[in-house]
């Protein structure tokens, strides 16, 4: 029996703590199909005290020079609460990952072209936030790392799997997955509401989260992060909630 899918593109709504998220047609499927073979680039990328403290530290480390923007970290959404999709429970929490052999599993079931392209861009050893989504209290709970780069997602060929795709061919697979391994829990749970407060503040003062994709393309289950975005969110571990 295949592992529960980490995918949440089809049939999943925006996070419950985001009442102002725009509810588009499911994963914008029509537009995404037209973009299947496009190379898609993500956009560039507090409490006020959190941003100032982060900025002060970064300037001290770099002599005040701005860091070059690259997308070398990721945010992976997964559902920690039970939800049936075609009779299969797609629940997969951080505890489920930790229970896997060597605390490693494949990240299967992604059926959105932009999210798939992000999977294909992942490099060995890159780190990602494990984000609990579509639940009572969404947010970041842990850090994982990429331990195997993109390869064909076998669930696309399994007729018993809820993510079976009859249009995909083994000689030219549409969908990919990567392997991820648990690194550590974050020092505290970092809720979506807190990240959003920083995002709104940074839109005003030019902070690192001003263009964070979590609020630009809310419904994508795989999202890139700049080094600045990753470092700032990681710095929130040390702040009181």
Automatic annotation (TrEMBL):
Gene3D superfamilies: ph1033 like domains (3.10.590.10). One of its GO terms (cellular component) is nucleus. It is found in: Nucleus. It comes from the Eukaryota. Pfam families: EVE. The keyword Nucleus applies. CDD domains: EVE. Residues 10-40, 56-65 have a biased composition (Basic and acidic residues). Keywords: Nucleus, Phosphoprotein. InterPro entries: 5hmC_binding (IPR052181), EVE_domain (IPR002740), PUA-like_sf (IPR015947), THYN1-like_EVE (IPR047197). Its main location: nucleus. Residues 73-235 form the EVE domain. Residues 1-65 are annotated as: Disordered. Specifically binds 5-hydroxymethylcytosine (5hmC), suggesting that it acts as a specific reader of 5hmC. PANTHER family: THYMOCYTE NUCLEAR PROTEIN 1. This is Thymocyte nuclear protein 1. It comes from Zapornia atra.
